[in-house]
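Hey, resending since the last one bounced:
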Amino acid sequence: MLACQPSLFSDFPIRPAPQLNRRQTFSLLDELRQGFPRSVRARVRTSNSIVYVPVPKAVDRWVGSKSNFGVTDLHYIGTRFDASIDTSGLNDFNLLQRGTDGYQSQDSLVISSQGGFTDSHSDDHSGSNHSFTGVKLWLLWDTVEGLALGLEDVERCTVFDRAAFDLPTFLSMKTSAWILIGAGQTMFIPAHLTHKVITLERYLGLGSFHAGFPGFIDLLKRWTSLPPTWASNSTARDNRCTVEFVTRRAIQKLYALRTADSSDRRRWGLSYLRERLQQPDMTEQAVDRYSANGDTSHLRAFIQAAKRQ
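The structure tokens again:
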């Protein structure tokens, strides 16, 4: 995260919630079928359409594997399913609040059949993804470099069919990378990477947005040049859907950690944040140059607070 690179782990503790350990057996599929209110609909995308179906029906369709489809953005916070799975590991050092709004973590289920793939897209936040079962191949590249070479991003380009993508151009880029994620593994990707995701084996997992101290400076740098699409234009003081609110929350956490013990400070990555502040692009002159790309007030405020740690 300090290097602003994608990361893959095999030891994040995502498992049944402690209160469920008394059960003789635990069925993830049963928890999915029963863990959502009947009124909740899963957004199912196929190659030709988007339909909304009850969650149990989407699960049965996934089990049957009769067609290529994908489900994303099925938010589970506050449901029975949320209580049945201990996902605290995904948010253990997350500066974003849990929730479903644009400035929050937006914890959600990811369900896809073998052979499914997403269009090339990027997220305004850095992200995490955990696989319960299945395998996905993630192709990743820097959004700005890709746009300069003709690789489109559906979040940044007007696309009428599929975003323009070709493998030779992808392989020629300095920032191109790939990650193969399988059952039990967890990955984190920084916000500046556009990605195209291919399901190699039918996949069931969790995704969420994430902001950690080691990469928060780079996140603010990205938002200076590419403002997040969720950020509101309103200047109301109580409007939390702004970069200002997310930055202020991070600064408040910095202040709270001043009196924390060493293990807590280490868990939140403060030593890596200090290392990030020593890099050449953190001089006053370097930060001044970012002003040509947009408003640097939030970046400056966070850097100033971080230097006081």
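The chain has eleven helices and eleven strands.

Sorry for the duplicate.
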